[in-house]
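A quick aside before the break. I want you to see a complete sequence-to-structure record at least once, exactly as it would be stored in a machine-readable document. Don't worry about memorizing anything.
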Amino acid sequence: MSSRVFAASACLFAIASGTPARAQDPPREVTIPQENVRYDYAQVLAVEPVYQVLRTTRSERVCDAKAAGGNGITRVVSAVKERLRSPATREEREAGLSNCRMEPVVREFRRAIAYDVDYSYKGSKFRTRMDRDPGNRLRVRVSITPQPLP
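That is the input. The structure line, written in tokens, reads:
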């Protein structure tokens, strides 16, 4: 009796699940091709630096040369002005400088940010951009993978 109950419950379970009771298909095997990698050296043909231009502005003191001579009134007025000015200005006067002012001065700086490298490998010419100058030869990564069949 117990075997009949077991067989009946198995049939009811198969009908309730809606799928036929069969063995599972084995999963298909997917072959991933191995990548063959090696390293070699290429001959560098030319290296060109790529520059970034930086511009800075800062204020600098610019003074004109002191004019010699002048009439008597001009000398008296200059002497009074010199007494009223700060000690730094007096030093400028003694050095022969006059009419000092602050002026903006623009300076430019160039710095290499990258290098365009032309190189030859196995008879073919290539170009790449690098962060440093590679020298006479360039280490290259050679990767070979088979072409899949159509």
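Two observations worth writing down. The first helix runs from residue 2 to 17. The two ends are 60 Å apart (CA to CA). We'll return to this after the break.
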